[in-house]
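> forwarded from #structure-qc
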């Protein structure tokens, strides 16, 4: 049994990001927070990550199979470089729901990694992801009670916000546990899976 009296955990697979990326995200959130009041639930910058696959509530007895699947998924992939691109949102002007920073760089390699993670986990019983993979770093989510006019105003502010230059290297994926609480989600690392070591060029 786990400490909360259940034998299942809320799990997802992600690429974590270094501290300088989290600091840059904190700066962007700071700009937007000044102009949004209490309309948005902002993410905690220390928890920012690139989600590859959300697994949901998973029995702990499935962990060994998940770990083997993820080990297989990373076996064909080398480390790659990512960077910030644009700022954007989901939901449209009057239905604004989520604010995010897009990701550029070796996107094809990131997408290939996400595909292999999805495929490997489908073999051990997880439903394949049907939606297109849209890599991004979430900034915040608009509260349910916010009206359409304020959502439209917030969207204007989003696109006026400058995105700093920020680049990083991804060399592993992480199996994460999400624990939901009154202060937001808390994340625990369950296991990490390094990508293949890059063969040095002569």
């Amino acid at each position: 049994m786990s400490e909360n009296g259940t034998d299942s955990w809320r799990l997802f697979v992600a690429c974590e990001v270094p501290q300088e990326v989290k600091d840059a995200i904190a700066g962007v959130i700071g700009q937007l927070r000044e102009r949004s009041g209490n309309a948005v639930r902002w993410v905690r910058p220390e928890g920012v990550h690139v989600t590859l696959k959300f697994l949901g509530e998973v029995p702990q007895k499935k962990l060994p199979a998940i770990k083997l699947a993820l080990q297989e998924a990373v076996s064909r992939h080398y480390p790659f470089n990512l960077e910030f691109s644009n700022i954007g949102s989901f939901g449209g002007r009057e239905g604004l729901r989520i604010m995010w920073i897009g990701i550029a760089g070796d996107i094809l390699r990131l997408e290939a990694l996400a595909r292999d993670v999805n495929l490997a986990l489908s073999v051990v019983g997880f439903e394949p992801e049907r939606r297109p993979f849209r890599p991004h770093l979430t900034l915040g989510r608009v509260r349910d009670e916010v009206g359409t006019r304020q959502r439209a105003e917030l969207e204007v502010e989003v696109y006026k916000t400058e995105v700093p230059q920020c680049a990083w290297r991804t060399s592993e994926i992480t199996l994460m546990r999400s624990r939901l609480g009154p202060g937001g989600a808390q994340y625990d690392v369950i296991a990490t899976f390094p990508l293949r070591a890059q063969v040095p060029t002569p």
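QC bot note: The beta strands are 8-16, 40-42, 49-59, 80-90, 98-105, 136-142, 167-170, 172-179, 186-194. Residues 1-5 have pLDDT under 50 and may be disordered.
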